[in-house]
């Protein structure tokens, strides 16, 4: 049980010594009452109470300078959940009447001071303190639930807005429902995305993914509040949107500087606290609800430029170079036709640099147009397996594209000339590695590095060869191993889960039932 912190304020040394001795003598369970400090005047009592935030203040009334009742009056505004007990040598009705008016919990005459009376007053105050704590806990839980529901509602509403299913002006009617602290007269939109969504999904369980996305959202909201007012929510496909309005009129140059500073802060904080890489883009400042959809789309389109700029990009209005929806001329195609498909890390790096330089000369194009052109080039270069397996939507930037092509081309080359299909050797090695380390925390990145493949390419190949995704395969093998271990002894669910690399008991039981149709205990009884 949490201790009850108490402070004693009295100008008499003997009384303070008597109270200190009283608290020292308390034995369990009464030792839950803990003396947090003593003060010899009302002024000192105020300082001590504000510093320690006690649950109970026991105070004398008549002291030099400010009296105890005035001290209580001042503290009640600052410490509304603190209980006050008056300890006085004056059994005068006038003092008692003033104490009652201040809603003091108890009034004890200290000459003579009875331990029984003091303890009874403390236990009475404890009941009130516990009640305050329970209400605060319930309120916090309710606030968390409401906040979670608000985030889900905002996600739904903003998704409808971006799909054109909701008129922007409807946001005004839903301000209270969405808890929007936002002035639509002057604002800007921000979009952020996880740079390597593919590895994110392959590395973390669904529960961990939700937790991390919620943490990203909290960081975004916290930093938005540093620069103005607004709101943020999660969107589909591991993207996040924020809308920020500033507290005073600012120039375009100042807003550009603010966007750059905020974007860099978001990238740095998410990297530092969550070990995730994100890119951020901003729209031009605008105003009015009718402009909200256009501003959101502008920020979303700007975010696409991170594919060409690389990870952890911050794209502001002044830094934008809108891409062409199609390849502007034949120069890019001619450049591609003049090079070979990379198959090593060094060749991939050179390919990415050359492609970036060529795009700089010919002008930026949309991600979709570039990937379509690269796929056609792969087909012309007889790299049909690479072209067919390319996960266009999940490649984050040019360097990842180059590394993915090289990894895939290398694996394809190793598979040629033999009866074994491409990459079968790597997948077999990966399965053996997983089998030997089921009790460890396995990640897709770790296994991909073991078999010398790019993580994104390994994920595609693993699913193609194994018939299921990496995470599903590892989970299934862990549950199969748990079934093998069941007869050995009387395991608890937590022990059995930890033995196969799943430290969360609830997640282990959910996974076990999903795969076997029943719980571990019922499975053992059934056998």
From TrEMBL:
Molecular function, one GO term: DNA-binding transcription factor activity
The chain positions of domain Response regulatory read: 5-126
* The organism's place on the tree of life at top rank: Bacteria
| PTM-bearing positions, type 4-aspartylphosphate | 60
Per UniProt, the keywords (alphabetical) are: DNA-binding, Phosphoprotein, Transcription, Transcription regulation
Give the CDD domains listed for this entry.
Answer: REC_YesN-like (cd17536)
Q: Identify the SMART domains for this entry.
A: HTH_ARAC, REC
Q: Where is the HTH araC/xylS-type domain?
A: 428-526
Q: GO annotations under biological process? A: phosphorelay signal transduction system
Would the keyword Transcription regulation turn up in this protein's UniProt record?
yes
Task: Establish whether keyword DNA-binding is in the entry.
Answer: yes
Q: Which InterPro entries does UniProt cross-reference here?
A: CheY-like_superfamily, Homeodomain-like_sf, HTH_AraC, Sig_transdc_resp-reg_receiver
* PANTHER family, sorted: ARAC-FAMILY TRANSCRIPTIONAL REGULATOR (PTHR43280), HTH-TYPE TRANSCRIPTIONAL REGULATOR EXSA (PTHR43280:SF2)
Q: What is this protein called?
A: DNA-binding response regulator
Origin organism is Paenibacillus flagellatus
